[in-house]
Amino acid sequence: MASLNVGNLGEYLREQRRNAQLSLRQLADAAGVSNPYLSQIERGLRKPSAEVLQQVAKALRISAETLYVRAGILDAERDMDEVETRAVILADPSLNERQKQVLLQIYESFRKENGFGAGEPAGYEQDGVVGRETGDGSRTAGGGDAAGSERDAGPRRTAG
């Protein structure tokens, strides 16, 4: 099988998997893909879909957007500094998920204020955090995990 132009993606995934101290099988199980398929991605023999990359990114707790750029799904020249900044924030082990999302929102607001970017923050939905748009167009983030998001989505009781 000839190698596709996704070797950089495969090498990066292998490095991230090893940093997370996961075996190929553990990552495949966590991402919901087959072990042989993930192995072929790491070796540059397969080009995964955006959906598979999103699942792998979520399992590795890294930015899916970074994987999209490395896979050639997003233009690498398109705000690479922004993508890298977001990836560093999302990969920082000293921050919890809620802090990461708040920091990304602040970063996005400064970029908008300075005339850059109008999209959703990287990882806004793929990291299991449900974002909500308020009446004034600003956004708030829910809890740091899927369970927290479901908990936040429930009805609220008011006193009185």
From TrEMBL:
Residues 13-67 form the HTH cro/C1-type domain. The keyword DNA-binding applies. This is Helix-turn-helix transcriptional regulator. One of its GO terms (molecular function) is DNA-binding transcription factor activity. Keywords: DNA-binding. It comes from Streptomyces actinomycinicus. It comes from the Bacteria. One of its GO terms (cellular component) is cytosol. InterPro entries: Cro/C1-type_HTH (IPR001387), Lambda_DNA-bd_dom_sf (IPR010982), TransReg_Diox_bact_type (IPR050807). PANTHER family: HTH-TYPE TRANSCRIPTIONAL REGULATOR, METHYLPHOSPHONATE SYNTHASE. Residues 115-160 are annotated as: Disordered. The keyword DNA-binding applies. Residues 148-160 have a biased composition (Basic and acidic residues).
